[in-house]
Amino acid sequence: MEREYTLEVPTPLGDEEIALCQRSEGRHRFIAWHGITATNRFWYWDTFWERGQVTLAGLPGHGPVRRHPREHYLRWTAQHLIDVGVGTARHLYNGEPMTLIGHSTGGLIALGVALAAPELVARLILLAPVVWGELSGIIGLWLRAAERPALARLLISASLAPGRWSYRLFRASLRSYASDAQGLYGNPRLDSTSRYGYPHYRLTSTDAVLGTVLALRTANLRPLVLHRCPTMPTLLVHGDRDGVVPYRQSAWLVQALPQASLVTVPGAGHMAYVESEQWVNAQVNAWCAEHPA
Questions:
Q1: What is the predicted pLDDT for the residue at 93?
Q2: How far is 198 from 192, CA to CA, in rounded Å?
Q3: For residues 88 and 66, is the Cβ–Cβ distance under 8 A?
Q4: pTM for the full predicted model
Q5: Residue 179 per-residue DSSP state
Q6: Which residues of the chain have pLDDT under 70?
């Protein structure tokens, strides 16, 4: 099944419209958050769709959602992204505990929800999560430029333009997020999922990407993790050659959380769950069996 719709989430900065896509039915509930510049159609990983009701959530400003004046995005913080996550979780499942999944920036949101509203989270699965704003690669370059937002916006626009003009260039650009190119491009679902998400990718506002960069630049969840120390079962999946979110962020987090496990994906980059899908699925399924919802 598939049901796409949008949701208005109230936040202290005003209502934020986000794109949602329900991909399966079942007793247990899941919400999955993607990373910066992606959309909720870009989930290459469907191992959970047979386990319950999975809703794929879009980051604020990403995909086919209402655009705001540029000044709105310049006010974004990590807390704003987390507020959107909490509001979405409360609305979708009426406060029932769920499994939260997050990749990269989506991992920051999922972890932030677990810190702010632990009663909503039964399990936490984080894929190369952003814990603090020390990033590498093209995202790290945008963060370093964000001291001058106008310059950062120009850089973001120039970086994304080729992929927005051409699907072939977009597909080629995925290589910058992966370490194992053979694993990435050898995944049989890469093209179908990329083509499915590409129209929504082209709709994402450059200003929304800039706002997300500004939020990531000053993000730091370490003090909250140490202070609140959430105890729900948590699985971390991180490629040991991630060129966007340094592996040490998950290494720190697994030491700080009392119920956390870390799956290190050898030779994989930022898209480890695509580059080594079968191996990652086996690890995740084994963990889920040990920690049933």
A1: 85
A2: 10
A3: no
A4: 0.97
A5: S
A6: none
Domain ranges across the chain: 3-290
Distances from the Cα of 51 to the Cα of 23, 56, 151, angstroms? 11, 14, 44
Report pLDDT digits (tens) over 177-187: 999 999 999 99
Instruction: Report which secondary-structure segment, H or E, holds 40.
Output: none
Question: In which region does residue 43 sit, left (phi positive, over 0), alpha (psi from -120 to 50) or beta (all else)?
Answer: beta
73, 82, 83, 99 from 77: Cα distances, Å: 9, 9, 10, 24
Output the 3-class SS for 111-171. Answer: HHHHHHCHHHEEEEEEECCCCECCCCHHHHHHHHHCCCHHHHHHHHHHHHHHHHHCHHHHH
| Cβ contact 77:218 at 8 Å | yes
Residues 6 or more apart whose CB falls under 8 angstroms from that of 118 comprise: 228, 230, 231, 232
Distance CA 235, CA 156 (A): 32
Alpha carbons 192 and 119: distance in angstroms, whole number: 37
C-alpha 284/C-alpha 199 separation (Å) is 30
Phi, psi angles (nearest 5°) of residue 17: -85, 130
169-175 CB contacts, 8 Å cutoff, 24+ apart: 170/194, 170/198, 170/201, 174/271
Domain 3-290: CATH superfamily is: Alpha/Beta hydrolase fold, catalytic domain (3.40.50.1820)
7: tokens are 């949701």
In terms of C-beta density within 10 A (0-12 exposed, 13-18 middle, 19 or more buried), how is residue 52 classed?
middle
Tell me which residue has tokens 């990329």: 194
Stated as kind and residue range, the H or E segment containing 103 is strand 98-103
